[in-house]
Every structure is written in C-alpha cells, then in structure tokens.
Amino acid sequence: MPELPEVETVVRQLRAPLTGRTLTGARVLWPATVARPSPAAFRRGLAGRRVTGLARRGKYFVIELDGGRAEGDPPGGPDGAGGRLLVGHLRMTGRMSVEDDPQPPFTRASFALDDGRHLVFRDVRKFGRLALVRRLGEVLPPLGPEPLGGHGFPGLDGAWLHAALRARRRRLKPLLLDQSFLAGLGNIYVDESLHRARLHPLRASDRVGRPGAERLATAIREVLTEAIAKQGSSFDAFYRTPEGRPGDYQHEFRVYGRTGQPCPRCGAAIRRMLVGQRGTHYCGRCQRAPRAPAAP
DNA sequence: ATCCTATCCTGGCTGC
DNA sequence: TGCAGCCAGGATAGGA
C-alpha cells in the first residue's frame, strides 16, 4: 500500500510532467473523493491554477499552486494571498499520474492540463482523498516527525526515538503505525524495520533500551531510503509508479508476506500474527518476544 | 492513556 | 465450474 516511499516516488515522478503546467479544468467522478471544500468549489478553485511545485508530508502528497485567479475570485486570489495546495492521500489503492486518457478505469477525479494531457486520480477502493486548502494545517491531522527529515525536522535519531518511546507505553507495532507518533510508516515498513532492529512487534515501547532505539532509528531510515531507491513496493495489482511501473522493493522484503519462509538472518520460519487487526510478520527467533507481552 | 471495533470499499481469493 | 462469503488495509470515530 502507498506508504512514505511510494508517495515520495509519486511526488518525484510527477514533478517533471506537472511543474509549470496550468490546470485548465477539473472533473470529479466520485464526489466523496473530495474531502474539502465542496466538489463544486474544488473544481472552481482549481481552474486556471499553475503548478509551482510538489512536496510530501508523511503519506500525503502536496501539489503547490500559484495564486492565479479562479473564476469568481477577486484579483490576487480568494484570500488576497492566493496560495493554494492540492493535498491528497492515496490510502490503499489510490494512484496519481499524468495520462493522455482523461478517464482510465477507476478514475475518481481528473484534471485537464494546458499541454493536452490529464492529471488523473484513480482509486479502485475509493478510500483515497483530495482536498484544496490554503494551509496544510487545514486538512492534515497531527503528524509526527518526518523519519528522513524535511518540513523542519532532522532525520530520525536514536536519542529522540528513545525518549519518545519511553514517553508512551504502547506495543511497538501499533505505535509505529500511529501517524501522530511518526509520519509515513505503514504495515510493510513497520514490519521490515522491526525485523532489522531485532525488536518484537509486541514489545512495550517504554521497555526498549537506548541500544534498541538506536537500532530502530537506523533501521527505519535505511528501510525507507532503500525502498525509495527501488521506487516502492508492489506485491499486488495496485501500486504502480506514475510512470506505470511496479516498484522493486518487494524483492527486498525480509519478513513482510514471507510467512513460513526462512528468516534471511537466522533461517527460522517467518511467522504471522494479528496485532491490532493488522497482519504482522516477524521472526520468532531473532525478534525476541517480550517476557510479559505488553497490554492485554 | 490505550485498546478495540465498526466503517468505508471492492477485487481477488477460498471453500463448498 | 459457479458463486457466496470473507479478507486486506489506512485512517477515523466512538465505546470500553
């Protein structure tokens, strides 16, 4: 599913075809896709805007638009400043790409560009969301730091992580999935990071020592960096890069989706269990179980 | 404070 | 072979 590396790949690959382009029109085919404002205001607010840049915060992508007038706006834009942000979340099956076809299968929203092509948002399961806002804070929930830095954050480091883990008392797996704790990790990269750090998914966060926190911080940075270099992970029919290719990081998985296969580190069979309703993959030998599993 | 469940969706898989 | 039923999975809301 699209997590930080997949969204980063989308942002990087959309920069070239989108930057400098003007949105000449917008279509919304599944109204629930537009989180805010209303679908009508969304369409109106985007028409005539030029893309000035793209960014990512956690699993959200951000398309930055200039203050070009939209129909009905006073000169300089609706607020005088005119800055606008098209913010989106791909959730599980969302895809964002520039296409010649304005409406490929499963298109939920489509934006005409001034070069005759179309920025297309596709989403089989309809969980993805788009929003048009002036400031990120209008639509983003509270998000933890960026593991690889950016948005004013340094990269994740062991000292900070150790303190943050001790300030909570939660099982590591759900805590690392919590976007308000750390932004960008999803089910795949949490499992991969915990395995690299040799930490059990049920370990209580406040019982991770400084060495464990250091290993975890390093593991998270490495896993995300390597996954970005491979353009993300594709293990089903869903995630594709904007260029239409599957990612390559699924070939590097050490535990995710490898139930029953040997752990690359110790050879023991990889196990799968449910933690907080999430499929969780781990090595029972080199990720030692906590003495008394945290919480009921 | 933390956990658990339901909800939103639908393609794909499982089992009969 | 056909089909009903189940499941995954990010985020969130509401209840325990």
- Series of secondary-structure elements, N-terminal to C-terminal: HEEHEEEEEEEEEHHHHEE
Task: Give the helix proportion (percent range).
Answer: 10-25%
Mean pLDDT: 90
Terminal CA distance: 29 Å
Largest sheet: spatial strand order: 2-9-5-4-3
Rg, alpha carbons: 21 Å
Shape: elongated
Uncertain regions spanning at least 5 consecutive residues: 75-81
Which structural class matches the secondary elements? alpha+beta
Number of strands: 13
In what range is the share of β-strand residues? 15-25%
Let me know the largest β-sheet. Answer: 5 strands, mixed
Count every helix, treating DSSP H or I runs of 4 or more residues as helices.
Answer: 6
Question: How would you describe what is shown here?
Answer:
23% of the residues lie in helices and 24% in strands. With 296 residues, it is of the alpha+beta class. Helix 1 (4-18) packs parallel to helix 6 (210-229) and helix 3 (158-166) packs across helix 6 (210-229). The protein is elongated, with a radius of gyration of 21 Å. The protein binds a DNA duplex (16 and 16 nucleotides) through loops.
